[in-house]
Amino acid sequence: MSSQENPEEALPAEQGDAHGEVARQDDPFADPGLPAHKPRIQDIDERAAKRSERVVAFLFTLSMLATVAFIASFVAFPIDKIVYVWPLGHVSALNLSLGLTLGIALFCIGAGAVHWARTLMSDVEVADERHPIAAEPEVKAKVMADFKAGAQESAIGRRKLIRTTMFGALALVPLSGVVLLRDLGPLPEKKLRETLWAKGKLLINQNTMEPLRAEDVVVGSLTFAMPEGLKESDHEFNTEIAKAALMIVRIQPDEIKDKQQREWAHEGIVAYSKICTHVGCPISLYEQQTHHVLCPCHQSTFDLSDGARVIFGPAGHALPQLRIGVNDEGYLEALGDFEEPVGPSFWERG
Prior knowledge:
Blueprint: H1 41-44, H2 46-76, E1 82-85, E2 89-92, H3 93-119, H4 137-153, H5 160-172, H6 174-180, E3 203-205, E4 222-227, H7 237-244, E5 246-250, H8 259-264, E6 269-273, E7 285-287, E8 292-294, E9 301-303, E10 309-312, E11 321-322, E12 324-326, E13 332-334
Antiparallel strand pairs: 1-2, 3-4, 4-5, 5-6, 6-11, 7-8, 8-9, 9-10, 12-13
C-alpha cells in the first residue's frame, strides 16, 4: 500500500516545535513549531551592520534631496514649458519633474524603511497565543514590554545616523503637499474687490456699444452697461464683465428712499451691479411699478428705490451701487469704483 492510500504512514514519527516538545504521531494537524532562527550577517558582523546603516541613511538623504528638487521644480519650470523625453515624447517639463522627484522622495523613504527592517531590526519570529479582546493588566504590561523591547532591538537609539536622516526625510516630504497648494490657482489678491470702473470711465450701452447720455435713459427702462475700453474680443473679457456688469434704471427722484442712493445718482438715474449677491447670477428682470429687480436663478429680489436692499430670497446683502455723473459732453460717467466688492460674499470680505 502506498503512502498516498494511507497518508498517516507518510508522517514522520516525531516533529519538534520551537520549545522542544514532541508532537503526537496520530495528530496530522500538530503544530510543527517555528524553524530554528538563523542569524544574518549584520547580526554577527558590525561592519556589515554599518554598511546597512549607511545604505539606509543614503536612501533617507536621497529622499530629502528629491523633496528639495520637487520644491525647486515649481520655481524653475514654467507651466507651459514642453520638452521632448524619449520614449515619452513631448511632455510638460513641470509635470515630469514633479512626478519624478516626488516619486523618488517617497520611494526612498519606503526602501530605506524596508532595508532597515530587513537588515538591522530583529528578525526573530515570535508566536503568541490568542487572547481575549479585553486585555488584562498583565497583557497590557506585556505589550508595553514588547514595544520597549522592539524599540530597543530596532537600534533606533543607537543608530543615530539612521534616526537623524529618517526624521529629516519624514519632516521634508510633507512640504511637497504644501507646495502642491499652488495648483489651487493664483491668490486672488485684490481682484475680487476691484473692477474696471474708475473715475471718468464712460458708461457704454452693451446693446449699441455707444456711450450713454442721460437723456437716453427714460423712466421705466432697464439698460445694461459696461466700462469704457472693455471689448468682447479681449482675453479677460468674461472675467472683467463678471465684476463690472452694470444695470441702469431711471426713477423719479422723489421715489428714491435712500439718501445716499439719491446723492450717488444723476437726476434719478441709478447704476447698480448686475451680479446677484447670492451666487453671482446676472440679474435681468425689472418691475417698473415697484422698481424691484429679480434674479432668475433663486428669486432673490432687490428694491432699487431703497438702496437695492434684499426684500426676498437667499441673497445676503444689497447690490453695490456705482456713483455716476455727467461729463462736459453730456455722457454718463463713473465717479469711481464700487465702494464694496460685487457679487457673492467671501470669507476675506470682512
